[in-house]
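FW: tagging you since you asked about this chain on Friday. Here's the raw sequence from the shared folder, copied in full. Didn't touch anything.
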Amino acid sequence: MPEYYQKLKDLLIGIEPLGTEKGNFQRTSVKYTNTVGYANQDGNLLIEESMLIKPAYRCYLLLNIQELEHKKLYGYLQDGNAEYIPYLGKNEYQASWIDKEGENSFRQYEFERINRTSAGKEFAGSFRKSFIVKHNLNEPVEEEYNPFELKPGPETFMYFERIPTSFDNILSQYKIEPVAYSNLLTAEGITLPGLFYLRDLDKYVQLL
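HL: got it, structure written out here
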């Protein structure tokens, strides 16, 4: 396996999309023609790409600066450094961790590891959909159900997606799992692995 994977595979990370419309980024499509001769022996190659408009994410990392690699990563993030230019999908779409004011968006949070949620808070970022989500369930439910409280207003949403959450070394492929992203408020007693409470934001985050 690559060196970076061996060193960072156990790093706990949570991801929160920013500036979405109910969990979705705006999209556009671009059509172009590849007229390079060696790529078009049977005629011009017509390509249409779908891309996101201004995608932005907040990434939560749990770092132990007593570990050498974590300490190095902490310093890089704090100073805005990188070994290679980060990009989103293609080399020409470079990523940046500079905020709208031109400052490094690096931030540290006060947190505590918890076992279950309290009522009336939001999740900061996506969480693994390891249960069936139900809205407004006040009556007792079976163990596999963990209810959310529906927040009043037309802007509530629940977005679902299947994303890579780990890597299978034997099959040499990603493990794909369903995740959810929502602004619904938590109900009492939702249990998730890797659950943390961020005191600064008064929100929960799941780190996988």
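FW: The mean pLDDT is 83.
HL: agreed, and The longest helix spans residues 68-79.
FW: great, closing this out.
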